[in-house]
Amino acid sequence: MLTYWNNYPTIQNKLQTVCSLIEERLKVENPDIQDALIEMTQAGGKFLRPAFFFFFSDLGNPEKQDSDQLIKIAASLELLHMATLVHDDIIDDSPLRRGVSTIQSRFGKDIAVYTGDLLFTVFFDLIIETMNASEYMAVNALAMKQLLLGELNQMASRYNSKGSVENYLNNINGKTAELFSLACLEGAAFGQTSPEIATQASEIGRNIGMAFQIFDDILDYTADKKELKKPVLEDFVQGVYTLPLLLAKEAQPDVFSPYFEKGSQVTLAEAEEVMKLVIKHGGVKQAKKYAQRYTNDALESIDRLPKSDTRKALKKLTTQLLIRTY
Amino acid sequence: MLTYWNNYPTIQNKLQTVCSLIEERLKVENPDIQDALIEMTQAGGKFLRPAFFFFFSDLGNPEKQDSDQLIKIAASLELLHMATLVHDDIIDDSPLRRGVSTIQSRFGKDIAVYTGDLLFTVFFDLIIETMNASEYMAVNALAMKQLLLGELNQMASRYNSKGSVENYLNNINGKTAELFSLACLEGAAFGQTSPEIATQASEIGRNIGMAFQIFDDILDYTADKKELKKPVLEDFVQGVYTLPLLLAKEAQPDVFSPYFEKGSQVTLAEAEEVMKLVIKHGGVKQAKKYAQRYTNDALESIDRLPKSDTRKALKKLTTQLLIRTY
């Protein structure tokens, strides 16, 4: 999906190098697993996290930058993301990810557990190579922890009929926004911008990540299966209650409580009813307002960055991300 | 199980501190998961890896040591071990570990995946706090990778009727011996011994780890269920072919090939037949010779360490480990 970056040839070029580096680092003894990992990398998403990293590093002074270091850090961000995806797919029992069979559907859960773990170690290899001795080691470890705590809390609160908007926002802050924040922060820091820009970058990344995840959760209610390439409604059936539902439930508790009471006994047909009710009672509309608010916060902060072509591109990209249909 | 160290009060004392530190670091938002993790720590094994770490650090100069650092590194070793145990239990579908319900049997595989991941991050937190900027960061990342590759290769070669002794030794070198080697190496290094002793320590640890794992695999064939606290024979039914079987098969291929051909269709009754055949054809006896060889190598290297009470204790412990019945 690096075609997504056709209008940003410099970024696209760097992302291609990141992709090659990841493939190189995923060499393992077992050829099947290696192939599956490389296929996963190539079928990959948009490499959004490395891309944001490079946008922010572009705000710095190129003469002070170590381009090899930047490529490796960008790769570490994608690997951390991939590791959690491999583990996510175990939990969701997902047959497909980005149109390609998941590691767990090909090799079983057991191999997927260790494959995800292995990706974590490749992530650590890269950050040790590039930032050992710096405070960013601890920043990375903390980000990884927040990410996992977000996932863990989401899991632990499944089928929780008392799930709140606040709890949801907390969880996505950990599981998604943290890594976007890290990507932007590290881009600014290792791109040798200023400490002020690094702080702004971290905040911008967090807002983008929040908006991104909310938007993703909205898609479960609006996109059709073919377009999304993953089964819609799976979150609800699995007891993961996302923002549109939580907001609709807040507005009309009596309408939704019968469905919540069913817990894991809920049927797919009932899930479809819930989907329609969420839309009817404004859940999607309200959730879009949340996404919009985080996007606006991000855009306003971007406006406060030093004026440059990069700032312009960043603004365009951020706006574009929130009108995506896939 | 820290009672195992009753005859080594100084070590026991340090291990108690390690145990408390681990509990402190396992504070997570979800009280159920936190309780389960703390229970796992307390029900814990013998804390063998931290113990070997301390034995080797005791060979150094106490005046040059940072005792807080040593406790943290010892804890990191146990946490890395615990992380792989939590993920192992997912794969083995184990209901019990050390007599306590496993994370996966209590909370499901999904939570167990993230809980194991979380333990990896706590491991990284500790090594970043204690050895950031040192070459030992990369040593740890590599050890973790070898450990996972060992597990992954073992998984990927399940039900492989061509499984060889060499392949088995490779896998246990990664999945078990690597961490014992790291424990001894880090004990020597952070205990401020000499580079020569550190090299010896690493080798001793590796030999102890090899012997330890072989011995563990022998127990599947000899111990009774109650004593072991885990279902015997599970390895065979799950297609993990360990040393006693591989050696018996090498000696009598015709006897064993019918069972191997059944692959995952093998029944528990057939597994019991295999167990008897392995013993009958000398598999256990031959495997014990392998364990003995690694133990002897370890003991000979220990003899080359500087003469001290610690050396004496280390020798005693190593010998004792290989006559354990649990």
UniProtKB/TrEMBL annotation, chains A, B:
UniProt xrefs under CDD domains: Trans_IPPS_HT
Family annotation (InterPro entries): Isoprenoid_synthase_dom_sf, Polyprenyl_synt, Polyprenyl_synt_CS
GO biological process per UniProt: isoprenoid biosynthetic process
Name assigned to this protein: Geranylgeranyl pyrophosphate synthase
GO MF annotations in UniProt: metal ion binding; prenyltransferase activity
UniProt KW keywords: Magnesium, Metal-binding, Transferase
Family designation: Belongs to the FPP/GGPP synthase family.
Keyword Magnesium: yes
Xref: Gene3D superfamilies: Farnesyl Diphosphate Synthase
Cofactor dependency: Mg(2+)
Keyword presence, Ribosomal protein: no
Organism of this sequence: Enterococcus alcedinis
